[in-house]
C-alpha cells in the first residue's frame, strides 16, 4: 500500500510513540490501539502505545507536552486532559491549549444512566420524582473530573436533585455497589455495563449523548427524556506544540482515513463509542468549547485536586 505521506519522505522515518495517559485496557487505550493500528499501516511506520497513567491523565500528557515537536511523540487528547483538569487542579504541569496541537477527534463516548433493578422507576421522570422524595441520592464515578462525575453533577444542577458523589478507585466495585443498591444511580461508560443491562442486573434510563446508541436503540437521550443536558466523553489525537504543519496535516489525513475505515468504525461502535473524526481546526475549537462548558459545572460541583 502506498504511504499516505509519500510526498514527505523525511517523516516518518522511525517508529512513533503514542502516549496514552490512562491505564492499559481502559477505554482510551483500546480506542488508541484500534485507530493507531490503522494509522500505522497508512503512514507505513510502527506506532507504539506507551501507557503513562496517573494524576487524572496529567502525568502522561506532561510527557507529550515536553517531548520534541518532531512528530515522533503523539498523545491521546481527552475531556480530562484537555478540558476539565484545568478547572480541577490548582496547579497544572502544562497549558492544555498552548502546549498541544490538535490533530483530530477520534470518538465521542457517551455514558448511560443506570439504576438498580430494585428501584421502583422505569424512566428519567420517575427517577427525578423518586430522588426528590428521598432527599438525597448517591452516584459513583471513577474519580473527580471523570465523565461519570461530570454527568452526575450536571444532572443534579439541571434537575434540582441532590446528588452525592462517591468516588471509586475500582470500576468493578462501582458497578457492584449500584447493582446491590449501595448507590442509587450511575452514569457509566456503555462498554462497562452493557452486558449487565442486557442480563437484567441494572436498568438503563437514558444515554448522556446527543443521539441514541445502536446498542440500545430503545433507550432515549437525556434531552429526549426532558433533561436538557449532554455529557459526552471523547478521545482525540494531539501532539506537542510547534510540530511542523506538514506532519500535522499528514497525521490528520491518516487519522481521518483510519476512522472512516469500515472495520475500524465497527470496532469503535461495538465499544459503545461514536466514531467522529474532524479537521485540525474543528478539533481545536471543540476542545476550547468543552473547556468553557465545564468551568461552571466543576465550580458548582466543588470538585478539586492537589
Q: CATH superfamily of the largest domain, please?
A: Bordetella uptake gene, domain 1
SSE string = EHEHEHEHEHEHEHEEHHEH
**Radius of gyration, in angstroms, nearest whole number:** 20 Å
Strand percent estimate = 15-25%
The CATH architecture designation of the largest domain is 3-Layer(aba) Sandwich
Structural class: alpha/beta
Low-pLDDT segments: none
Find the count of extended strands (DSSP E, 2+ residues): 10
CATH-defined fold name of the largest domain: D-Maltodextrin-Binding Protein, domain 2
Mean pLDDT: 92
Largest β-sheet summary: 10 strands, mixed
Identify the CATH class of the largest domain. Answer: Alpha Beta
Tally the helices. Answer: 10
Total individual domains = 2
Distance between the termini: 49 Å
Mind explaining what this structure looks like?
- This protein is an alpha/beta fold and 306 residues long.
- It has two domains: 162 residues, 3-Layer(aba) Sandwich (D-Maltodextrin-Binding Protein, domain 2); 98 residues, D-Maltodextrin-Binding Protein, domain 2.
- 41% of the residues lie in helices and 21% in strands.
- It contains ten helices and ten strands.
- Strands 1, 2, 3, 4, 5, 6, 7, 8, 9 and 10 form a ten-stranded mixed beta sheet that branches.
- It is globular.
